[in-house]
Structures
1.
Amino acid sequence: MKQSFTVQDLPVPERPRERLTLLGPEALSAQELLALILGRGIQGEPVMMISQRLLSSFGSLEGVISASLEDLRSVRGVGVAKATQLKACLEISRRSQAKDERQDKKDRRRVISSRDAYELVKGELEGYAKERFVVLSFDVRNMFLGADTVSVGTLNASLVHPRETFEVAIRRHAHHIIVAHNHPSGDPEPSLEDREITRRLVQAGKILGIEVADHVIIGKSGYTSFRDLRML
């Protein structure tokens, strides 16, 4: 007589892998999710039983997540390999969640100065060998709606076209925009081309009813703002 059962003894529609394929991961229980991460059980003990033991030992899926490597290894059926698999998967989840939280905080940011705009966009532009032109969109309360790169390469009036610039702003329902780009040379001083690009965008914005509130140029040691220089 068979002393124990494995996942393979379950009807096909009830097996975790098949249930995830058919219904998606959100349909699975914590026990089933852990079983899929662990992969297989040990002799005489199916993976579903080990998953349930983990939940019983730590109280919940959150308890498993916060458990140390040593604590996980103390559970019968969870050796070094399974414990490290669990910690690796859970760390991926933690990092992804932390990134989403940082992005949410960034997305809710209110920008009221050129320094705010610089802090918002510098991570998108610093350290590149080519010029990148980015459009920052804002609502009527100066809340950040999103950033879009519309051009990469040596900037000129034909490369940075009002059509692409305002297309992303319209898509985000922007009240106004701030444009920004980097100078790989490191000197943030506006060039004649930068001035011409800005002039054309300001004119187009007036026609479309979307104000160009600033043009920020980022160099190695800081930035230059057309608004601060009263060039807008």
Note: Confidence is low (pLDDT under 50) at residues 1-5.
2.
Amino acid sequence: MHLRTAAIVCSSRSHGETGAIVRMLSADHGLLAGYVAGGRGRHLRPILVPGNLVEAELSWRSEGQLPTARLELTHSRGPWLGEPLAAAAIGWVTALTTTTLPERQAYPSLYSALSGLLEAVCHAPSARGWLPGLVAYEALLLRELGYGGEQPDPDVGMAGFDKAGQRLERYLLADRRGDVMGARSILRERLARIG
């Protein structure tokens, strides 16, 4: 089997001496995982940064096997990772996506929403420009995974952000909240600093 698709890198972890396993979200194929040979090297490591947009080529020998992935960078989020608030937001939404979505189930609306949210995080002049989008993405994720959900207030503040976090903890992250909610806690602390 062979697949070529545009995707958003959501996570990457080392595998073996030089490789990496990357998980990415595509519009038509959902969350995909693949082994990237040489993914820990200096040429490929910057491509595997969560939030980056890539053109992914995956190849399987058999259905039950982890595919081999070749990635080509189409848009980097690297320049914004030096800014603490943007880095925390990107880290949170990509970790949440990786942790909660099942593999190989298409969620085109989540792909579009995540893509738009990442653009907003990188280009809005302040967190006030993207915080409502982040809470809306969390609500959309809850709805897409069958937990219903109310439409968030467009003038969401810290109280709305905290309420959304409680719903995520209760429904989606009840059995695995430690590491993932840690990313949200870091974002919460940084948002509180700006008032």
Note: The chain has two domains: 2-76, 79-194.
